[in-house]
Design a protein that fits this description.
Elements: H1 4-26, H2 29-40, H3 54-68, E1 71-76, H4 80-91, E2 95-98, E3 112-115, H5 121-125, E4 130-132, E5 136-138, E6 143-147, E7 163-169, E8 173-174, H6 177-182, E9 192-195, E10 200-201, E11 209-210, E12 217-224
Parallel strand pairs: 1-12, 2-3, 4-7, 5-8, 7-12
Antiparallel strand pairs: 5-6, 6-9, 10-11
Length: about 230
């Protein structure tokens, strides 16, 4: 039986695309060109390009993550599985859910990994956590960028479980938000989720509460690709 949660996400995504498609078709080509030209002419005085070298950029990204309360592990691509096992052991996790396209080479044999697509929202809430990769990251704000495809996973799996272990490759880290967004695949028409540390809010009586809008605990494996 296909879960109702999956059906709802698919229906909402299809409906959104249908609405956007009708809007695009209703805009005359000349009007669209004018809007594009007007958008290009908007002054952009914020920092758009970084100046840091790779080592300093990665150090800044790690510092931001740690400042937010996230755990950070560094490793080579060939050591991802061993580092996943290390992170899971440190958090007392024996199993995680994974999106369908996460490479098997990243999954240590001593742990259990469950496919995410067949799980309802209630099921996700009972899991120990989730392992995903990402499509990019921003050093200056310590932000991870997810586009909800087969390897990043549907949005629900990165919002409902209490623990998120995310693989970020060093060459995915850009210094500024503008650079991070510019590097995203342009061909994808899927939601984007931005994560800056574990979920927390101080909106109510200035009391900090973790795990309100997403995982209460975040670990990041910052991996250097194999030469």
């Amino acid at each position: 039986m296909v879960e109702q949660a999956d059906h709802r996400e698919i229906i909402l995504s299809v409906a959104r695309e249908q609405v956007l498609s009708r809007i695009r078709q209703a805009i005359p080509p000349t009007a669209a060109s004018s809007v594009k030209a007007g958008h290009a002419a908007i002054p952009r005085e914020y920092q758009r390009a970084g100046t840091l070298g790779e080592s300093a950029r990665l150090t800044l990204f790690e510092d931001r993550l740690r400042d937010y309360g996230a755990g950070v592990y560094r490793c080579a691509e060939s050591a991802i599985a061993a580092t996943v096992a290390l992170a899971m052991k440190a958090r007392g996790k024996s199993e995680l859910i994974v999106p369908p396209a996460v490479p098997q080479a990243w999954l240590p044999a001593e742990a259990r990994f469950l496919p995410s697509n067949a799980l309802s929202y209630a099921d996700l809430d009972q899991t120990q956590g989730v392992l995903t990769n990402c499509v990019g990251a921003v050093a200056i704000s310590g932000t991870i960028l997810l586009q909800h495809t087969a390897d990043n996973g549907r949005r629900a799996i990165t919002l409902i479980p209490d623990y998120h272990l995310c693989i970020v490759f060093a060459d995915q880290v850009r210094e500024t938000l503008a650079e991070g967004l510019e590097a995203l695949p342009k061909s994808l028409s899927v939601p984007i989720t931005t994560i800056s540390g574990p979920s927390a809010t101080s909106d109510i009586e200035m009391t900090r509460v973790k795990g309100v809008h997403g995982p209460r605990v975040l670990d990041v494996i910052l991996a250097a690709r194999n030469p």
